[in-house]
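Recall the central idea of this unit: under ordinary conditions, the amino acid sequence of a chain determines the structure it adopts. In this exercise we apply that idea directly, starting from the sequence alone.
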Amino acid sequence: MKKVVYMDAAASWLKPQSVIESEVDFLTNNYANAGRGICERAGKVDDLIAESRVKIANFIGADSTNIVWTYGTTDSMNRIVDIVTKTLPNKHPTIVVSDLDHHSSRLPWEMYAKDNNCKIITMPLDENFNIDTKTIPDGDIYVITAMSNVMGAAQDVSSIIGVIRSKNKQAITIVDAAQYVVHAKIDVKKFDCDFLAFSGHKIGADTGVGVMYIKNPDYWNVDKFGGGMVNKIIDKENIILNKSPEKYEAGTLPLTQIIGLSKAIEYLSNWNGGNDLISFMYDELSKIKNIKLVTSKDSSLITFVVKNMHVLDFGALIGMQNICIRVGNMCATWIHKKLNIDGSIRISVGPWNTMDDAKYVIEKIKKIVE
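Accordingly, the structure predicted from this sequence is:
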């Protein structure tokens, strides 16, 4: 069997055995729907989901009532647009974004702004391509990418939101933590954000589960209707919803994935972050002629381009060596425009990667570039 080196952790983590075993055990021995049954088995599932919710809440410094299960960061970010705009009286807010944003974070607001004649403003970046806290513009709604999937640098979310609050205490702050959650501690109370989202598959859980944090969940109107979120229907004018988080969770939850997410959090807490591998590879790549590094050495990943070589050509050649890395625009068009490049090559590591992997990848890159 050929050696395969997977260094695309920023796209999705490989699944640890503890996650796989927990999901298999749930499906084999404990499966039932949640929030629907009164038998012992259904009650156990309710307990498992509740325990996972508490674990996630503790993981980000929240209360369990603040944690809403979604299907991933993209789902969360699209839902937040609906939740916010259905509640706020101002249907033409000024929306502030940044060039660090992933398509999932910014495009939903771009589309809302287009359809509702809203103003979109871009937060300036400093010389290191971080959000410049000295020049944050005035606005009503702010989208904050806590870590770019291209640049890999953690933003000072607390300081950014602190500046925003000093300008407008009523401003709504939305944090995309999809990349940040892997590499830095989330403390939503310290952040003082109104919303925050991340995906389970980025930290070793299965695809199809995400977390949406809502600071004041009872304030906002819901964006979905269905089973599980209704307390009582008296008539069409009097529909009483459940309290948070159930009121946001219409329909059957991704139960198996939620069970796995709980184990993924445990697995993540035992990882050192892979900084030694990134540092080694950064130094080695910096020695290779025709490679231009985009990221700094202290970033959580490595992004680069090869002079006079299209990133897709490089991707095809490195893929033939059974090396899995990301090439393209990473669903992050705006930062690539800011960098004045069409696309880039990204290396990101996970707990499964070794120094031997790092040396192997560098060896293959040298042969392709030189």
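The longest strand covers residues 230-235.
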